[in-house]
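Hi all, posting the design record for the shared folder.

TITLE: backbone redesign
STEP: 1 of 1
STRUCTURE INPUT:
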């Protein structure tokens, strides 16, 4: 009797799981990675990924996001019925790539088991000259401090020797010096930033003139952020993908690294998206700004900003990006 009751319960549980499976979308990728083999730098790689729905409910694709500016993705349709499929056409521009490369496009869906799935293009990009690193990210630079980084230039084809002949900066605040590499073949490019460069993000580039007939000119992006006495951490607010439940909160910390006390005079937020509270962690030195998403936000992407105003003579206004993705149904925060 007890054994029969146990078997019956197992059948009920299995049937319940099967009904749950039929009542939800299920994304199933047969080819999450496409190997494009070996191509010369500058070639364009195109591939179309299939995104099938093998569940029992409509699969909704909110959006598709590329991992870098070198990839472009086009979605065929946003709603996929059970048994159907969407297609994501991905194009990869290899103009600034070299060596073994993997670039991923993320697909955001309403599949509860796979809200984000990746589609990747992978392969080898051959170039006459290889710059490492490329691009050159200088990170967060303290204004007034000396900043110098090096980029190594080497040949990308066995048996061929090409070199950089001269370098042209696009900004008077970015300086570059080319010299032989002291510890191996190739060259070393020393990049420096002026100590008095303006506060905020910068995005410059260096133009490299080479001896390569295939690539006579190369560009090296140089970017980063110059910070002063006041720093906000993290530098942006991301709430991620929201599925309902309690409204999420995020904390920003406003820190004073200068000698004089700092006061946060006011804060401006998108009132229809978030509320906020401001509290002093240490008066004059550090403040905590807590942001809370409002309930009942419309489905879609949220892209806004938070503005922080201080009494610092050179850093009176700080702008912090704010992002979120709200899904349909349920309580939103």
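Okay, here is what came back for every position:
SEQUENCE:
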């Amino acid at each position: 009797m007890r054994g029969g009751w146990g078997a019956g319960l197992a059948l009920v549980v299995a049937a319940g799981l099967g009904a749950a499976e039929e009542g939800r979308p299920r994304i199933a990728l047969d080819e999450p990675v496409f190997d494009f083999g070996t191509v010369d730098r500058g070639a364009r790689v195109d591939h179309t990924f299939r995104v099938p729905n093998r569940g029992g409910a409509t699969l909704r694709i909110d959006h598709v996001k590329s991992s870098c500016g070198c990839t472009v993705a086009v979605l065929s349709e946003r709603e996929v019925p059970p048994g159907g499929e969407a297609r994501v056409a991905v194009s990869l521009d290899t103009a600034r790539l070299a060596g073994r490369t993997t670039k991923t496009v993320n697909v955001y869906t309403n599949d509860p088991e796979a809200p984000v799935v990746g589609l990747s293009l992978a392969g080898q990009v051959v170039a006459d000259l290889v710059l490492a690193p490329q691009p050159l990210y200088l990170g967060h630079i303290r204004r007034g401090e000396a900043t110098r980084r090096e980029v190594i230039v080497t040949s990308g084809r066995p048996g061929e020797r090409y070199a950089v002949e001269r370098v042209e900066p696009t900004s008077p605040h970015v300086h570059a010096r080319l010299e032989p590499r002291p510890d191996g073949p190739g060259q070393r490019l020393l990049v420096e930033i002026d100590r008095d460069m303006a506060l905020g993000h910068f995005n410059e580039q260096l133009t490299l003139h080479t001896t390569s007939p295939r690539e006579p000119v190369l560009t090296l992006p140089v970017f980063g952020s110059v910070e002063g006495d006041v720093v906000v951490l993290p530098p942006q607010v991301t709430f991620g993908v929201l599925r309902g439940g309690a409204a999420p909160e995020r904390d920003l910390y406003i820190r004073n690294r200068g000698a004089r006390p700092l006061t946060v005079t006011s804060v401006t937020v998108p009132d229809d998206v978030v509320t906020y509270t401001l509290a002093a962690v240490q008066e004059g030195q550090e403040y905590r700004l807590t942001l809370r998403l409002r309930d009942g936000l419309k489905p879609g992407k949220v892209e806004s900003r938070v503005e922080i105003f201080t009494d610092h003579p050179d850093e009176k206004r700080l702008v912090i990006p704010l992002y979120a993705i709200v899904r349909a149904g349920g309580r939103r925060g």
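COMMENT: The chain is about 5% helix and 55% strand.
Let me know if anyone wants the other runs.
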